[in-house]
Amino acid sequence: MISDKINRLYSELPATVRLVAVSKFHPFEAIEEAYHAGQRIFAESRPQELLAKVRRLEEIRAERGDSGYMADIEWHFIGHLQTNKLKMVLPYVSLVQSVDSLRLLEAINSWGAANGKVIPVLLEPHVAAEETKQGFSPEEIASVLSSASEYQNILFKGIMGMATFTDDESVIRSDFASLRAIFDSARSNHPALAQDFTELSIGMSDDYPLAIEYGSTMVRIGSMIFGQRG
Ligand SMILES: *Cc1c(COP(=O)(O)O)cnc(C)c1O
Predict the structure, then answer these.
(1) Residues with beta carbon inside 6 Å of ligand 1?
(2) Which atom of ligand 1 is nearest to the CA of 220?
């Protein structure tokens, strides 16, 4: 049961670690069940799917005649975001965790300026030995944060990262250590940002206990809560 999984995670996670329930590929009913078990933050990785779920919730509110139903649900975006899809995502999310290029950051900033909004984001460095080319280098993160004041419509909230997909615990540890080091140096080199730059989003179903050892403030857990994705 989804509610059992949620309850068990809450009894296990330290109070300093927030649970983000990754609901991608699962139906809205699964989100509802998790919500009724006390979960509030949900993450999606595809713009179309996020939008469909946001609309489904609006429909349910209309059917129930209760505009406040699930009013305090929060959506995060955690997937690769193309700059032509911003309007499908940015109006609905409280955090974009997966800002993985300068081009995307600039596009989000422009969207924020055009829409009178400040968008909270995490920067995603590339540390895992994966085939993907997405993600900032540590040097790029440092350079973005040095020019943070140029991004008037961005709120820099921290770092999001993924470890290499492997069973080798030493590789996962080394990836989390690298992400932690990037997070720590960002905070110490940019004290003006440090008050907001507080999130280290690391840890998924298979590796979240390790991520917590490395200082995770936010774990993103999907399959452990909702089961395998179709
Ligand atoms: C799918 C996904 C997760 C959740 O993965 P699980 O192994 O199902 O917990 C976390 N983070 C990102 C970026 C994802 O795409």
Answers:
(1) 22, 24, 45, 78-79, 162, 204-206, 220-224
(2) 10
Under a CB-based contact definition with an 8 Å cutoff, are residues 124 and 99 in contact?
Answer: yes
Q: Could you tell me the domains of the chain?
A: 2-226 (3.20.20.10)
Residue 230 Cα to ligand 1 midpoint, Å, equals 14
Q: 0.70 cut: is pTM over it?
A: yes
Residue with tokens 């078990």: 37
- CA max distance for the chain: 53
E strand or H helix at 19: strand 18-22
Rounded to the nearest whole angstrom, what is the distance from the C-alpha of residue 33 to the centroid of ligand 1?
19
| CA-closest residue to ligand 1 atom 11 | 220
- Phi, psi for 21 (deg, rounded to 5): -90, 115
Enumerate long-range contacts of 212-215, CB under 8 Å, 24 or more apart: 212/13, 212/14, 212/17, 213/176, 214/173, 214/176, 214/177, 214/179, 214/180, 215/180, 215/183
pLDDT string in tens for the chain (230-residue length): 999 999 999 999 999 999 999 999 999 999 999 999 999 999 999 999 999 999 999 999 999 999 999 999 999 999 999 999 999 999 999 999 999 999 999 999 999 999 999 999 999 999 877 666 689 999 999 999 999 999 999 999 999 999 999 999 999 999 999 999 999 999 999 999 999 999 999 999 999 999 999 999 999 999 999 998 76
